[in-house]
Amino acid sequence: MKFVKALGVMLLLAAAYVGGYGNGRWYGLKEPGKTGSQSTRKVLYWVDPMHPSYTSDKPGIAPDCNMPLEPVYADEKKLEPGVVQISPERQQLIGVRYGIAEISGGSETIIAPGKVAYDERGVVNVNAKVDGWVEKVFVDFVGKPVEKGQPLLTVYSPEMLATQQELLLAGQGQQVMRHSPIAEAKDHAAALVEAARRRLELWDFSPAQIDELLRTRKPVKSFTVYAPASGVVTERKAYENMRVTPEVTLYTLTDLSRIWVLADLYEHDAPKIRVGQTAIIRAAYGNGRAIRARVNFIAPQMNAETRTLQVRLDADNPGQILKPEMFVEVEFRLGLGRRLTVPSDAVLHSGMKQTVFVDAGEGKLLARDVSAGESHDGRTEILRGIKEGERVVTSGNFLIDSESKLRAASLGPGEEKKSEEKKPAAPAPGHVHDD
After folding, report:
1. Rounded CA separation 51/79 (Å)
2. Which of 191, 268, 350, 373 has its CA 20 to 30 A from that of 222?
3. Strands, E, within 43-106: which ranges?
């Protein structure tokens, strides 16, 4: 009897258990700790909140950060294409920060290496205009500064001496023919004097020297060559007793009060420089003294070896602080004007594509394709794709981009996705998806 009673009790307990399980399983009773919406949502897979590329087919702990894996539900595919939804708590975990797209001005500084060169417009060659021989040399070394009109050397020229004698004879004949009744003879004598005088003037005899010659009637054996301009002797070929001809350059004088600077610009900087643009020249010594310069020429072609474009600037050289062949630093300051910019960290570069994640509210982040311009001072110009005032992600966007690509791959095109959902196979635990 006791056995029968005990058996009845066991049957009642079994019926109660089955009824309770069925009630919970088939009649929608909630399991402890779960909401009704969560129990009915279909979980596609679980993902590491810190590294979205790590997925698993069952809940667990992420191996890298020891955080609980988060479920990715099937109904999340209702989000618009390119939208990722991340809760504020999770954004805080992955370090999401924001910046603002705004209109701002600014400036850009381009630093280019340069080399000092002679201003070719200030280079003067000194030649003797007649054949002869050098007698005395007054300027006898390269680098010596000279002033305009300073004597450089004396030259003995038989041809010059003969021309002086011709002038004296012509002058004497003119005096004789002064009282001649034949007008043509007077004119001929005057023409001879003028021709000899003109010839001496072309050989750099001054009118005062010619008048002195006619007054004293004593031709000079040698003549003096004077500096035609002020400058520094950069080349000397005049030595005593050497024979000279008009083709021989005796001295080269260079004015160093103004110089040229040859700067080399890289290809991406070359289009920004224009003729007439100003720059600052700084030498390695002199406490970095700044000298203002101006672009006066841009080379028509690139240097094939260095892939640089040469730009020429001219500048004053006070105190001749800049020496030819000296290396200097050329600084171009460019105004950029007002334009739309975002923090440079907001722009993701992937090949030919640039992406910015825009805050769409309620934890939604929209991947926006943009056209990025130049970057300066931590901000990047946006030519297309962003509006002023929009909030953009500046930190954590690499993780957001990974999750966006992961979800796009898993939620894929409709029909192809549906066929994949019918397959019983699931990703293996700990499987990592490659983007």
Report:
1. 21
2. 191
3. 43-47, 55-56, 70-73, 83-85, 97-100, 102-104
End-to-end CA distance of the chain: 71
Q: Which of 340, 338, 343 shows the shortest CA–CA distance to 392?
A: 343
pLDDT in tens, 316-352: 998 888 999 999 999 998 877 788 889 999 998 887 7
pLDDT, position 301:
93
pLDDT in tens, 116-153: 999 999 999 999 989 999 999 999 999 999 999 999 99
How does the average pLDDT of the chain come out, rounded? 80
Whether 97-106+338-395 shares its CATH topology with 109-120+255-335 is answered no
Q: 412: which 2 tokens?
A: 């894929």
121 neighbors 297 (Cβ within 8 angstroms)? no
The helix or strand, by DSSP H or E, that contains position 405, with its residue range, turns out to be helix 397-411
Look up residue 68 and give its DSSP letter. B
Mean pLDDT of 265-274: 91
Sign of the CA dihedral with 33 first, then 37, 42, and 45 last = negative
What does the pLDDT average to over 397-419? Answer: 61
Neighbours of 104 (CB within 10 A): 14
109-120+255-335 in CATH: which number? 2.40.30.170
Q: Mean pLDDT, to the nearest integer, of 77-103?
A: 79
Cα distances (angstroms) measured from residue 82 to each of 303, 328, 409, 434: 45, 51, 12, 19
Q: Where are the domains of the chain?
A: 1-36, 97-106+338-395, 109-120+255-335, 129-243
User: CA angle, 160 as apex, 159 and 161 as ends, to 5°?
Assistant: 90
CA separation for the pair 139, 146 (Å, rounded): 8
Closest by Cα among 233, 271, 230, 275 to 252:
233
Domain 97-106+338-395 CATH assignment equals 2.40.420.20: yes
Q: How confident is the model at residue 215 (pLDDT cuts 50, 70, 90)?
A: confident
**Cα dist from 413 to 47, 93, 418, whole Å:** 21, 31, 9
What is the spatial distance between Cα 104 and Cα 157, in angstroms, rounded to a whole number?
Answer: 74
